[in-house]
User: Fold FUN14 domain-containing protein from Deinococcus taklimakanensis.
Amino acid sequence: MTADLSAAPLSPAAPPPETWFSALQPALPDLSVGAVLGFATGVAIRAVGRVVLVVVGVLFITLQLLAYFELVSINWLRLQALTEPWLRQGSEQGAQWLGRVLTANLPFAGAFAAGLALGLRARV
Assistant:
């Protein structure tokens, strides 16, 4: 004796897929726009970050060349002591501040954050 599974009713805990789609349909434009804008922002942050790193690297090489030819004398320990508290505070609060600024007044902040994470990791 075999049981006919096609006649079995759907469980009330799992609505049919049509219900899910119809429930999400009004939010899809906001979600897609948020994801695209988040992705674009992530790619832009990566590009700007690379430029900043190149500028810092060139500045360091320039200072080292000037120090090598004894045109300037750099007290690296004093420079570290001056910048360390600022950099520590900036790294802890900077990411939170940037997140607040980028998602302020956005109804699609979740999709934006997901797109931003993808944009930061993308190989474009």
User: Anything to note?
Assistant: The radius of gyration is 26 Å. The chain has one domain: 28-121. The mean pLDDT is 80. Helices lie at 17-24, 28-68, 76-103, 109-121.
